Amino acid sequence: MSATRYRRFLKLCEEWPRDETKKGRDLGTFLRQRVASAFREGENTQIADPEKCDQMYESLARINGNVYRQRFPRVRDTSFTGVTAEECRVLLSGSMQQSMDEEKKGLWKSLMERFSSKSPEDGPEKAPEK
Question: Disordered: where is this region (predicted)?
Answer without folding.
Answer: 96-130
